Amino acid sequence: MGAGAFRRAQRAANGGAPVEFDAGPAWQVVAFRVVLVVLALVLVASQVGPWGPEVRALVAGWVTSVSPVRF
Questions:
Q1: 22: phi > 0 → left, psi -120 to 50 → alpha, else beta; which?
Q2: What is the pLDDT of residues 4-56, one digit of tens each?
Q3: C-alpha to C-alpha distance for 37 and 29, rounded to whole angstroms
Q4: 11: how many CB neighbours lie within 10 A of its CB?
Q5: Distance (Å, rounded) from C-alpha 4 to C-alpha 37?
Q6: DSSP class of 25
Q7: Rounded to a whole number, what is the largest CA-CA distance in the chain?
Q8: How many of the other CB atoms lie within 10 Å of CB of 58?
């Protein structure tokens, strides 16, 4: 059964009303989205403004402190 057939079957079982899901996203999904947003903000902050070089140096220090590979 394809996705479209599944959706049609769910609507038919629900009397034609749109199917609503009551489960929110898992905590892993929320955590992943938060990490992505923080990374995007760090990337933007490292490229704009007069603080760019300091932010890049700070992030480089963090990365080298947690990286298993030394450059």
A1: alpha
A2: 888 888 888 888 777 777 788 899 999 999 999 999 998 887 787 777 788 78
A3: 12
A4: 13
A5: 32
A6: -
A7: 62
A8: 14
